[in-house]
Design a protein that fits this description.
Strand content: 25-35%
Number of domains: 1
Distance between the termini: 85 Å
Number of strands: 10
Helix content: 25-40%
CATH architecture: Beta Barrel
CATH topology: OB fold (Dihydrolipoamide Acetyltransferase, E2P)
Mean pLDDT: 83
CATH class: Mainly Beta
Largest sheet: 5 strands, mixed, barrel
Length: about 180
């Protein structure tokens, strides 16, 4: 005995496009966030970069001096030297600790910086490396700086990783360095 087809509904295929779109978006974000500069060293149409290398002195968590050149690390924002954060209910000098962490990471080794432009203070804005590892990315991933989204999204995923693992600044509460500066 056959039943009329009106009793049997045809199964609709599952809609997988929302999942596929979300996955594609995450892949694009990961690729975009990992992008620092074009392979030829140019950043978003800027002029050819300046290369500075040598032993660096740390000024604060995101500023170095190599010889006579002041260098601002591109795409990140570290707490200022006088900035205080809170961890376990007590205040701690997060700005000084961020600078100390950077100083210990460099540890007298050669720093190489590829500058893209200068900022309003005349500092070279650059991507810096020590032994081939990005200092910019290391500071954000270890929680000593945040991604400076106003200028770059290159380190957003690294910030998420630091936040997830509660590293550095993320071990307590803090005011974003940009907000802290505006409040002073």
């Amino acid at each position: 005995m056959e039943f009329p087809s009106r009793f049997f509904r045809r199964q609709r295929p599952r809609r997988t496009w929302p999942f596929a779109a979300a996955l594609a978006g995450l892949i694009i974000l990961a690729l975009w966030a990992g992008w620092e500069a074009a392979p030829d060293g140019r950043d978003r149409g800027e002029l050819a970069p300046a290369i500075v290398a040598g032993h660096a002195q740390v000024h604060d968590g995101d500023t170095l001096r190599i010889g006579e050149v002041r260098v601002r690390l591109h795409g990140i924002d570290a707490p200022e030297l006088g900035q205080v954060c809170e961890r376990d209910g007590t205040a701690w000098p997060c700005g000084r600790e961020a600078a100390l962490a950077l100083d210990q990471r460099i540890a007298g080794r050669m720093v190489s910086c590829r500058g893209t432009t200068t900022d309003r203070f005349g500092r070279l804005v650059a991507f810096c490396t020590v032994d081939g590892e990005s200092l910019n990315r290391w500071l954000v991933r270890e929680g000593w700086a945040v991604a400076y989204r106003r200028y770059s999204h290159a380190y957003v995923i690294d910030e998420w990783i630091a936040r997830w693992h509660r590293r550095g600044l993320w071990a307590g509460s803090f005011e974003r360095p940009e907000d802290w500066r505006h409040g002073r």
